[in-house]
Amino acid sequence: MPAKFDPKIAVLIVAAGRGERAGSSHEGPKQYRRIGGRPVICHAIDRFLAWGHADRIIVAIHPDDEKLLSDSLADFKSTATISSIFGGPSRQETVRLGLEALAGTGMTHVFIHDAVRPFFTLALLERIYAAHRSGEVAVLPATAVPDTLKVGSVQGYVTQTIPRNGVYAAQTPQSFELETILSAHRAAKLAGRSDFTDDASLAEWQNVRVKLVDGDSGNVKLTVKEDIVMANDRLKQQRSVDVRTGNGYDVHQLIEGDGVTLCGIKIPYHRKLSGHSDADVAYHALTDALLATCGAGDIGDHFPPSDPQWKGAASSIFLSHAAQIVANHGGTVLNADISLIAEAPRIGPHRQEMRENMSELLGITLDRCSVKATTNEKLGFVGREEGIAAIATATVLYGS
Predict the structure, then answer these.
(1) Residue 372 near residue 340 (C-beta atoms within 8 A)
(2) Calculated CA dihedral for residues 225, 230, 235, 236, nearest 10 degrees
(3) 275-334 residue pLDDT tens
(4) Eight-state DSSP code of residue 305
(5) What is the mean pLDDT of residues 151-171?
(6) Among 20-24, 195-199, 362-366, whose mean pLDDT is lowest?
(7) Contacts of 138 (CB under 8 A, 6+ apart)
(8) At what angle do helices 178-190 and 91-102 cross, to 10 degrees?
(9) Neighbouring C-alpha atoms within 13 Å toward the C-beta of 129
(10) Backbone angles phi, psi at 262, to 5 degrees
(11) If we measure between CA atoms, which residue out of 108, 24, 41 comes closest to residue 79?
């Protein structure tokens, strides 16, 4: 496998269980119980969306839970990458049906995750992803077992002590080359085997080498009612005022043309800004400012200028994408400020419309959107009217 191999990742979230051990609730099975004010399953989906490498997400549900899932997904601004299927009578069969739904989609790898594990970290996903990029076919996150393990008899007496050295507790997401794990599931069905407790053990049965990576100590599975109560308390404790500020700077060259686009407004002028997209220097700077608040790289990481699909594209696409990433990380945009540095054209007559565009794209009130303009006093490339620069600042509240 090439060193630079980039997997096409699908995520299969297993959510068809009834969760009897968690007791009954008007909210439905435990994957739909609310912790931190949101269904458990939303927290899991959030993390995969925030990660950014998931090309599609399939949620395998019970036929009775269509409305529960639909209501949960209403929490998200965009569900373009999320679809659902009906699962089977067992977890193993549910996973197989999900894998069959992914066959022929162009996905190379699949992350199989239990919906009731809401606390995995982005760092864990990166460890799994890195293992696949280095050529691993199957990857299992796990933690070393700290306790002494005993085997008991039916009469309730200890019959054996198991050495804990080299013993691990398996977690999800467990990740595989899609064709490999689908083939293993098909083989198990043909053999009449339905006793596998996780997908790694099924892969092991097919002599697939499974790579261990460090799991997360906090990546717990919510099994009983007390787990859900503790998860809710945990989220309450994690809530704090987390206000972050991001900065962005961009500059584009002025060339012969018929107008410049700034904050989505085409201003008639005898020159235009040079760039692969519409070269909206203001939106480019603000996009970088938003991405900076959650460590999500910069505009070039998400919309590389080498990609022909972005040639001439409206930069509002980039800004909306950055706003969605912020939302997926649990952020709320509080304020957006853009300073334009240009000798010409005049910005003042268009400021109000620019602010209105920002307000609509970011979903915030007009008083939280600011556009300012200044000249460079005839100094430097701006003063010589060779280009226009923009400085942007974004303030985002996380974890409220």
Answers:
(1) yes
(2) 110
(3) 889 999 999 999 999 999 999 999 999 998 888 888 889 999 999 999 999 988 888 899
(4) T
(5) 92
(6) 20-24
(7) 174, 175, 176, 177, 180, 181, 200, 203, 208, 209, 210, 211
(8) 130
(9) 18
(10) -135, 125
(11) 41
Specify the 3-state DSSP secondary structure of 117.
coil
**CA 168 to CA 146: how far, in whole Å?**
9
pLDDT at 313: 92
Q: How many angstroms separate the CA atoms of 247 and 286, rounded?
A: 8
The structure tokens listed for 174 are 């467990």
Spatial neighbors of 175 by CB under 8 A, at least 6 apart, are 109, 110, 111, 112, 128, 131, 132, 138, 139
Residue with tokens 């699949």: 110
Q: Report d(CA 151, CA 161) in Å as an integer.
A: 6
- For the chain, how far is it from start to end, CA to CA, in angstroms? 43
For 173-199, how does the pLDDT look when each residue is reduced to its tens digit (9 = 90+)?
A: 999 999 999 999 999 999 999 999 999
Separation between Cα atoms, residue 96 and residue 199, nearest integer Å: 10
* E strands in the chain: 9-15, 34-35, 38-39, 54-61, 82-86, 109-114, 138-144, 149-152, 158-162, 168-170, 174-177, 210-214, 242-256, 259-262, 265-268, 271-273, 331-341, 369-374, 387-398
* The predicted structure's pLDDT at residue 238: 63
Q: What is the pTM of this model?
A: 0.61
- Among 342, 205, 143, which Cα is nearest to 261's? 342
pLDDT for 2 beyond 50: no
* pLDDT over threshold 60, residue 4: no
Q: Tell me what the pLDDT averaged over the chain comes to.
A: 91
- My answer on whether omega of the bond before 63 falls inside 30° of 0, hence cis, is no
3-state SS, residue 185: helix
Q: Got the DSSP string for 253-265?
A: EEEESSEEEETTE
